[in-house]
Structures are given as structure tokens and as C-alpha cells.
Design goal:
By secondary structure, the protein is an alpha/beta fold. The chain has 2 domains: 54 residues, no CATH class; 201 residues, sialyltransferase cstii, chain A, CATH 3.90.1480. 32% of the residues lie in helices and 21% in strands. The strands form 2 sheets. A 9-stranded parallel sheet has the order 9-8-7-6-5-4-10-11-12. A hairpin with a 2-residue loop joins β2 and β3. α5 packs parallel to α6. The longest helix has 34 residues. The radius of gyration is 22 Å and the shape is elongated. The termini are far apart. The mean pLDDT is 86.
Length: 272
């Protein structure tokens, strides 16, 4: 059944139905009604597109993520971002390491999981395809944004070469962090680190260290510049904080040498 249906009776009266329920009846197409019709047509198209997207997400994610649920229970997990503060980090032993993007060049730890979701820097992707680490599980994202997909979608051939899992990411910055990764697309507010963080929470560790998640415009740990949309990313981390307070209140979250995330979680500083 179509979500929206329009019909016209013999007397010229037009009716609009939503899910079989009549929501509007009118006799003449005025300019105002034409505008309203255009609105409903656009709304119907949007609903249908999002429904198809969510079906694709559920079909893929239900095969990928259930096996990782609670897999890191009682473990310590370290999320390695790519901010300059990463250079001050002293790796801890017996931790699970999760990396993103340029962290593939960071050779002081062996990654257990790795997330990347754009093809703008194929040189990093080539290294990641060949990366072994600690039997590293790789995750290559798919974005729900046609404009971005044209320039940054990671080709399926790269995913096959890397034996990577795929996942869908929702670019709606008004969204919320995801509770059930097996049915919903990842929330993303301008940083793959937010995606990795949702995955880490899904694995339910005892403790999470945030390293190199500087969330500012100071560049990367390797001296390269960044173009982070800081306000979007900070908003994302604030939503993550609210989410963890509700769903993972027993999980200890520690920012190591924090910059942009200062005072958001528990802060910990190391000596140079």
C-alpha cells in the first residue's frame, strides 16, 4: 500500500489519504492547494526514500553487528583519534585498540578494530587494506548523502580486498546516537570517531579511553592540517555524553590530555 494516495470523485472533489486514512478533501486546485500538493508529494518521496534506506540498513547491519554485542565486556578499550595530543600518549597494555582514518600510520599500538568512511584519502585506505594489526576487524562506511557519495564513497572492491565489514551512516546532524546497531544507521555529526565510539559502547567495555580526540582545528598528530567542523563534532560528543549517561552509566569514559572535550568526561593528563 502506498503511504499517500490521491483520488478525485465524479463531483470534482479531491481527497488525499495517508496510510488509507483521509487527511484532506477539497474541490478546486488553488495556488495554495497546489503548493500543499507539492508538499505532500515531496513528503511522500522523502518517506519512501528513507523507508528504502532503513530497509537496506537493517538487512546489512543485522548480519554485521550482533556478533560484536558485549564482546568487550569487562575490557578496557582505547579510541585512537588523530589530533596532536596523540603524540603525548603512552600506550597501555592489555587494552583493545580502535582506530580511525589517519591513525593507520600510528605504529605504537596494534589495532583490533578500525573505522573509515570516505575515499578522499585513498593512500590511507591502501595501507588499511593490507593492515593486519591484532587480527584487526575493519569497517568501511557507506554514507546516506548522495552529494557526498559521488566523491567519497569507498568502492566495494576496496572493501572486498580488505575483507572489511560495511555499515551505513546517517548524515543527519539532528539525529541521536544509536542504541541498536543491528537495525539502525550510525549517527554521524562530522567525525568517524563518533561512529567508532557508538561501536565501542555496543561492545560494552568497562572503561574507554579517548586519545587524540582533540575536536579543534589544531590539525593532526602527523602535522597535517584538518578541516573539522568543530561545532558539529562537539554537538555530537555532547549527545554521546547524554546517551552514555542513560544507557551506559557504569562505563567509565576518560579523555586523555583533552582539548575540545575538556570537562565533558573524566579528564586525565600525562607527563610529556
Amino acid at each position: 500500500m502506498k503511504l499517500f494516495r490521491k483520488e478525485q470523485s465524479p463531483n470534482g472533489r479531491r481527497r488525499i489519504y495517508f496510510c488509507g486514512i483521509k487527511v484532506m478533501s477539497y474541490r478546486k486546485k488553488t495556488t495554495e492547494i497546489r503548493s500543499l500538493n507539492e508538499f505532500y508529494e515531496t513528503l511522500e518521496k522523502s518517506i519512501n526514500q528513507n523507508t528504502r534506506f532503513l530497509l537496506k540498513v537493517s538487512n546489512l547491519d543485522s548480519k554485521v553487528f550482533p556478533k560484536y554485542k558485549n564482546i568487550n565486556k569487562d575490557n578496557t578499550v582505547v579510541l585512537i583519534g588523530t589530533g596532536p595530543s596523540l603524540n603525548q600518549y603512552k600506550p597501555i597494555e592489555h587494552a583493545v585498540y580502535v582506530g580511525v582514518n589517519r591513525a593507520i600510520e600510528y605504529n605504537k599500538v596494534k589495532f583490533d578494530y578500525f573505522f573509515i568512511q570516505d575515499f578522499l584519502y585513498p593512500e590511507y585506505l591502501s595501507r588499511l587494506n593490507e593492515y593486519v594489526g591484532n587480527n584487526c576487524k575493519k569497517f568501511y562506511g557507506l554514507l546516506n548523502d548522495p552529494a557526498l557519495n559521488k566523491v567519497s564513497t569507498i568502492p566495494e572492491s576496496e572493501s572486498i580486498e580488505a575483507k572489511a565489514e560495511r555499515y551505513y551512516c546517517n548524515q543527519n546532524r539532528q539525529g541521536m546516537p544509536v542504541y541498536d546497531l543491528s537495525t539502525e544507521p550510525f549517527f554521524n555529526s562530522g567525525s568517524v570517531a563518533l561512529v567508532a565510539m557508538q561501536f565501542i559502547l555496543w561492545t560494552n567495555p568497562k572503561r574507554i579511553y579517548l586519545v587524540g580526540c582533540d575536536t579543534n582545528l589544531s590539525g593532526h598528530y602527523n602535522g597535517q592540517q584538518n578541516n573539522l567542523r568543530v561545532n558539529n563534532v562537539l554537538n555530537g560528543w555532547n549527545l554521546i555524553k547524554d546517551f552514555t549517561d542513560v544507557y551506559y552509566p557504569k562505563t567509565e569514559i576518560i579523555s586523555v590530555n583533552p582539548v575540545g572535550l575538556k570537562k565533558m568526561f573524566k579528564d586525565e593528563y600525562t607527563n610529556d
